[in-house]
Amino acid sequence: MKKIDALAPAPGKHAIVTGTLWMMGSLASFIGMALASRELADTMPILQILMLRSLVGLGVVFLLARHLLPELRQLRDLRMHAVRNAIHFSAQYCWTVGVALLPLAQVFALEFTTPIWVALFAWLALGEHVTRARALAIAVSFAGILIVLQPGSGGIDPAALLVLLAAVGFGASAVFVKRLTAGSSPAIIVVWMVLMQLPLAAAMLLLTGGWATPAIGDIPWIVVVGLTGLSAHYTMAQALRVMDASLAIPIDFLRVPLIAVIGWLLYGEAVSAAVFVGAALIFGANYMAMRAEMRGMGAGRAVAGG
Asked: What's this model's pTM, rounded to 2 decimal places?
């Protein structure tokens, strides 16, 4: 067993540097998406932001259409794609409302609860085993949620509950994505996301009658929110492809202090220490659970190899 472990390739310096750069791109994308959504929410309704985001994504899809059309024509798992996108669209709506109304650091802190909901939904829908480490992480994360929400300090902001609901939706969406990858490539999952969420946002916007003609100054933010909506997940996927998750995920936590500084500089947002304490608990619990599960998988492979 020791010989097998010794022969296992360690991530090279080049892979770590490359993965770190991809994670930096992911950080910039998530922060850019939040800032663009905040800026656009001052001049247009949330549904219009989501529609324009998908419209920019549609332009990217057209550029890649020739390569994706053969798989797209197979029309695999359309019903599952539809359910997944309805959930994801609802989560995006709640998240964008939170970005418009809450300190950005609080939004990102609550968003880090997504792994909790992924684990719970994977257990309920896929029958996946919840390890002792993951169960402990869920319990500690709930304590972190209470610290971030601070229910005893004048009541919970409804917008914070919407962000928490968004994290639940993102968790459910991730489980659907895991099932969809059995028959669809990640690129096609993104294509169906654009093709389904664009008409959904347009129809709901039409029903509410809330269209606001974008100003010239809105156009760069529209481009940013559309491109970062695609690049945020692509860059993280690329990072995880070339480096261990145990190295990549801690970099992602930098989103909280970075967005706190940006929120303070651009919007004068004051963030309480409770947000950082709660975010650290949520992140730390999930990170330790991930490390424990990875060690367990490594031990299992070593025994199988022996």
From this structure: 0.85
